[in-house]
Specification:
Blueprint (H helix, E strand, L loop, with lengths): L14 H6 L16 H12 L6 E4 L3 E2 L6 E10 L2 E10 L5 E2 L12 H6 L7 E3 L5 E7 L4 H17 L4 E7 L9 H14 L1 H13 L9 H11 L4 H9 L4 H13 L7 E4 L2 E3 L6 H20 L17
Parallel strand pairs: 7-8
Antiparallel strand pairs: 1-3, 2-3, 3-4, 4-5, 6-8, 7-9, 9-10
Length: about 325
């Protein structure tokens, strides 16, 4: 069931209040601490019901500047070539642990995601500098990604002209989709040649998703290239040499760092939307609410939560 998350409440503090009350000194960040990782892993396995087949790797604790007395703790889980991260706070003495989020009211509640999202030199459409940015992590072999892609391509620009910019990021699920990563590599090769042609490739491969097979992908892509003004010889060399594999792997790593566990996953001005946004009326409402929020922030004297995303002005 699709869940509509509530927008964070915008808290405004007047300039006069700041003038009257001196700011409290920042508490120092907690230094790193050594922990019994085996004991912590056993506890978390019991708490979270991670089955024995799931491999768990726990990082060393790192200081948590916004949580004095606690440290960040990240557990990396992997199973059948799929992976995800769980994030916790652990007390300085290593005796207490909790899972949650700490927010700085002077920043977007999704600032941590915004800091990790890299949209420069990525396929995009819509207005540069738009107040709403959608970043879609998707898999060309995923049927739900196909549905969501159709929703985005058919509705966003038409409904919100000049208001929304959409970025595409590769997140092929290699463990269950055998041709997803080669297709992602091919898409990046097309993008290298011509940014506009990428979206022709994007729409075509989703439209023909049912016909594509691991052993027919390259042939089909090269035939498509010959009919759409893309240099098939150059494209073939790029695909055969896997010249864009590192770019795809970088996008996958970014997705894992953001905590993505499946596709499609959308980020709406940094807010993660894990439910399939295949019903336009739901996504439309979320975009409208975000636009309303951004308008209120723009009108306020304290622009505490303005979202800024790096963009590539000439690429759509």
């Amino acid at each position: 069931m699709i869940k509509i998350m509530r927008l964070a409440t915008l808290l405004l503090i007047s300039t006069a209040a700041f003038a009257q009350t001196p700011p409290a000194p920042k508490a120092p960040a907690s230094p790193a601490v050594n922990i019994d990782k085996a004991k912590v892993e056993a506890y978390l396995r019991h708490l979270e019901l991670w089955i024995p087949a799931v491999t768990v790797q726990i990082d060393d604790p790192t200081p948590a500047p916004n949580m004095p007395g606690y440290n960040n703790l990240v557990a990396h889980l992997s199973y059948n070539n799929a992976s995800t991260d769980f994030r916790y706070y652990i007390s300085q003495d290593g005796k207490r642990i909790f899972k949650g989020e700490s927010y700085d009211l002077a920043k977007s509640p999704f600032q941590a995601n915004l800091d990790k999202l890299k949209t420069d030199l990525q396929p995009s459409f819509g207005e540069a500098g738009a107040p709403v940015v959608l970043v879609a992590f998707a898999d060309f072999e995923c049927p739900y990604c196909k549905e969501e892609a159709n929703v985005l391509r058919s509705n966003v620009i038409k409904t919100f002209p000049g208001k929304v910019r959409v970025y595409f990021k590769d997140f092929p699920l290699e463990s269950i989709h055998p041709w997803a990563k080669p297709a992602a590599i091919a898409g990046k090769c097309v993008f290298r040649q011509n940014a506009e042609s990428f979206w022709k490739f994007h729409d075509w491969i989703y439209e023909n998703q049912q016909q594509v097979k691991p052993d027919t992908l390259n042939t089909m892509v090269l035939e498509w290239a010959g009919k759409n003004g893309v240099d098939a010889l150059q494209l073939g060399r790029c695909m055969d040499g896997k010249q864009t594999e590192a770019e795809v792997a970088k996008s996958q790593a970014e997705g894992r760092e953001l905590g993505i566990a499946g596709t499609p996953t959308l980020f709406l001005n940094g807010r993660m939307l894990t439910d399939n946004m295949t019903q336009w009326q739901v996504l439309q409402q979320l975009i409208s609410m975000e636009l309303d929020h951004q308008a209120k922030v723009a009108d306020s004297p304290e622009k505490c939560c303005t979202v800024q995303m790096p963009t590539l002005g000439g690429v759509h």
